[in-house]
Automatic annotation (TrEMBL), chain A:
The keyword Nucleotidyltransferase does not apply. It is a peripheral membrane protein. GO terms for cellular component: plasma membrane. It comes from Parendozoicomonas haliclonae. Residues 4-241 form the ABC transporter domain. Its EC number is 3.6.3.-. GO terms for molecular function: ABC-type amino acid transporter activity; ATP binding; ATP hydrolysis activity. This is Putative amino-acid import ATP-binding protein YxeO. It is an enzyme of class 3 (hydrolase). It is found in: Cell inner membrane. Keywords: ATP-binding, Hydrolase, Nucleotide-binding, Transport. Coiled coil: none annotated. It holds the Pfam family ABC_tran.
From TrEMBL, chain B:
Pfam families: BPD_transp_1. Signal peptide: none annotated. It is found in: Cell inner membrane; Cell membrane. It is a multi-pass membrane protein. Part of the ABC transporter complex GltIJKL involved in glutamate and aspartate uptake. Probably responsible for the translocation of the substrate across the membrane. Belongs to the binding-protein-dependent transport system permease family. HisMQ subfamily. GO terms for molecular function: L-cystine transmembrane transporter activity. The keyword rRNA processing does not apply. This is Glutamate/aspartate import permease protein GltK. Residues 21-212 form the ABC transmembrane type-1 domain. It comes from the Bacteria. The complex is composed of two ATP-binding proteins (GltL), two transmembrane proteins (GltJ and GltK) and a solute-binding protein (GltI).
Length: 245, 223
């Protein structure tokens, strides 16, 4: 059953077309990895799904929320956002909140949980990302890898139907990439529905149910990791893979 | 011929000036409250570019920064009641609070606006991504971070505002400046009077600077 449906999505910056009519369906429990050269529109696609970027045209449905970009109202956008959680390339932890408060903030403010219940969830999430002992640390006191694990924890705690990952390891030191990818594999095993924009090909091969290759604002080809990585059909996919593999 | 400094007079003047301090501090506190609230509103209007309001905020800031404070006070207290007779019931004390508040709101708006736009855009995006409305994100995430950046500038304006309450004496408010001026005029001890007055203002500003340091430390603990 489709959890996410995108129809004919268009987005431009000034006169540059970034998304040129994207259609996409993602099923519940499916893990989709989006690959493509920089500037192909993959991050923009992810940011349009929760309206961090406003698309000009297209229909987006996530679970029960549905937004038509051309007539999107703030209320609809907020409802849509609450069906998704987002992990940022630069972590984007709330700098004025401790690790624990980064996770509990939305639980109390957005979901209306009591402070006590939120703290319970927060501590559980902290220990599942392996940072139970850093609950009171400020983001500035954490390493990049730790910050990103908190960032993922913040997204996990929301328990939204769809998790979006925007190059979650691109800003990390090479030796920290591993700890974040391992955490994402745990989420994958829990059958959370995820869309991951990344350059980590081995990760894509291991966890993706489906790989989507984008270029020039279009989906060029898609399929299982074996199909796309081992037997790419389009010359652009082949050229990209030659460069990154 | 040079007169010797009259220490007894100076020592006797100090308690008199201190007894006039409540008026000075009262005007400062209330005007600051007004300036901060209005400044914050103006800044948010400008950052969010609310159509219509944004242009009004521009004109407001331009006018109140572009004309002298004393002129604004005279306009408010002596000028406006000629057109709106009901304003004659406004006391000089109230007029000064209003005048200082309106004037310094323009400066505070600019400081707060600059602080808001200096907070990384990803902070707002992260707050929206977890489902907050724009207003909640502003209030819970962006403004607290902006306040730390704005503090030194706001403190400068606050100090300026405190000292500007001395202009209230031109409207006839009985505050420290007017008391010193009366004593100077009746005793001809101008040097003593104004020197003691200067020291009183200085002492207040020193205390405020000390409070600023403590606040900066507290707001900075996350960084």
């Amino acid at each position: 059953m489709a959890l996410l449906t995108i129809e004919n999505l268009h987005k431009s910056f000034a006169d540059q077309v970034v998304l040129d009519g994207i259609d996409l369906q993602v099923d519940e429990g499916e893990i989709v990895v989006v690959l493509g050269p920089s500037g192909s529109g993959k991050s923009t696609l992810l940011r349009c799904i929760n309206f961090l970027e406003q698309p000009e045209q297209g229909q987006i449905r996530v679970a029960s929320a549905s937004v038509d970009a051309a007539v999107a109202r703030n209320r609809d956008i907020q409802t849509l956002r609450r069906q998704t959680s987002f992990v940022f390339q630069n972590y984007a932890l709330f700098k004025n909140k401790t690790a624990l408060d980064n996770i509990t903030e939305a639980l109390t403010v957005v979901k209306g949980m009591s402070a006590k219940d939120a703290e319970e969830v927060g501590r559980k999430v902290l220990s599942s990302v392996g940072l139970a002992d850093r609950a009171d640390a400020w983001p500035s006191e954490l390493s990049g890898g730790q910050q990103q694990r908190i960032g993922i924890g913040r997204a996990m705690a929301l328990d939204a139907p769809l998790m979006l990952f925007d190059e979650p390891t691109s800003a990390l030191d090479p030796e920290k990439v591993h700890e974040v990818l391992e955490l994402m594999k745990v989420l994958a095993r829990q059958k959370r529905t995820m869309i991951v924009v990344t350059h980590e090909i081995p990760f894509a091969r291991e966890v993706a149910d489906r790989i989507i290759f984008m270029d020039g604002g279009k989906v060029i080809e898609q399929g299982t990791p074996e199909e796309v990585l081992d037997n790419p059909q389009d010359e652009r996919t082949r050229a990209f893979l030659r460069q990154v593999l | 011929m040079m007169n010797s400094f009259d220490f007894d007079f100076a020592a006797g003047l100090l308690p008199q000036l201190i007894s006039a301090l409540p008026a000075t501090l009262g005007m400062t506190a209330l005007a600051t409250l007004l300036a901060l609230t209005l400044g914050m509103l103006l800044a948010v209007v400008q950052v969010t570019r609310i159509r219509g309001l944004n242009q009004l905020a521009d004109i407001y800031i331009s006018f109140f920064r572009g004309t002298p404070l004393l002129v604004q006070l005279f306009l408010l207290y002596y000028g406006l009641p000629q057109v709106f007779p009901e304003l004659t019931t406004v006391t000089a004390f109230q007029a000064v609070i209003l005048g200082l508040g309106l004037h310094f709101a323009a400066y505070m708006a600019e400081i707060i606006r600059a602080a808001i736009i200096s907070v990384d855009r990803s902070q707002m995006e992260a707050a929206l991504s977890v489902g907050m409305s724009y207003g909640t994100a502003m209030r819970r995430i962006v403004l607290p971070q902006a306040s730390r950046i704005a503090l030194p500038g706001l403190m400068n304006t606050f100090i300026d505002l405190l000292k500007s309450t001395s202009l209230a004496f031109t409207l006839g408010v009985a505050e420290v400046m007017s008391r010193a001026q009366q004593e100077a005029a009746s005793s001809f001890n101008f040097l003593e009077s104004y020197l003691v007055l200067a020291l009183v203002y200085w002492a207040l500003v020193v205390v405020m600077t000390w409070v600023q340091k403590l606040t900066e430390k507290r707001l900075g603990e996350a960084y």
